[in-house]
Amino acid sequence: MAITVFTASCNGQSRKTDGSSSQSKKVLIISSSPSKGGNSDLLCDEFLRGAKDAGHEAEKVFLNDLDIQFLRIKDDYTDRNLEINDDAPKVVAKMIEADVIVMATPIYNDNMCGQMKTMMDRVFERESEVKNKEFYFIMTAGGSNTGCALLGFRNFIRYLPGSKEKGVIQGTGIHLKGTVKGKPVMKEAYEMGKNV
Ligand SMILES: Cc1cc2nc3c(=O)[nH]c(=O)nc-3n(C[C@H](O)[C@H](O)[C@H](O)COP(=O)(O)O)c2cc1C
């Protein structure tokens, strides 16, 4: 018979002894690769599976399926974005609703891909509302240089009040579509999702 032991933590949230939280969280996973079923997207799916197995309410959005246009602003920075009728505001609304946000990108030209950067720019108008979130970052690269993308993610959350970085998954040396399958990083993503 499985026995789950709970311990009280200093923030009042009970935690299981396996490290996972007993409190159901809203988890939003933002998958930004243009490659559906590609390496970073597969890691997103594993994170999603882990979060759902732990009883969390988890959802993945695949940016390339959506209409996400570039940020437009007025010269005086007022009325930014208001004239764009696309899917970005819906994603931002989901970010505001979420407790946990996972941001996943392939490494392109030693950086995050344009889809993710464009989405991050579109948060601009409501960044003060994307507050008190726990963030996880997922990156996949043919080589090993994920530093610029990670720095970009960290700089992004610096402007979001009360944000906390909780975990990073780096699938390096992974080039062709699907080669992440069977690699230890898949289990890492599942476990990280399970322990949000
Ligand atoms: C346009 C483009 C640029 C890339 N640039 C890099 C790079 O600078 N460094 C690197 O390690 N891999 C680079 N790659 C390889 C991808 O990072 C790698 O294939 C990754 O696993 C793709 O993830 P995905 O399947 O989630 O899209 C590039 C791939 C593409 C298509």
Automatic annotation (TrEMBL):
Span of domain NADPH-dependent FMN reductase-like: 26-147
InterPro entries: Flavoprotein-like_sf (IPR029039), FMN_Rdtase-like_dom (IPR005025), ISF_SsuE-like (IPR051796)
Keywords: Flavoprotein, FMN
GO MF terms held by the record: oxidoreductase activity
Entry keyword annotation includes Flavoprotein: yes
Superkingdom in the source lineage: Bacteria
One Pfam match: FMN_red
Keyword Ubl conjugation: no
PANTHER family: IRON-SULFUR FLAVOPROTEIN MJ1083, NAD(P)H-DEPENDENT FMN-CONTAINING OXIDOREDUCTASE YWQN-RELATED
Protein name per UniProt: NAD(P)H-dependent oxidoreductase
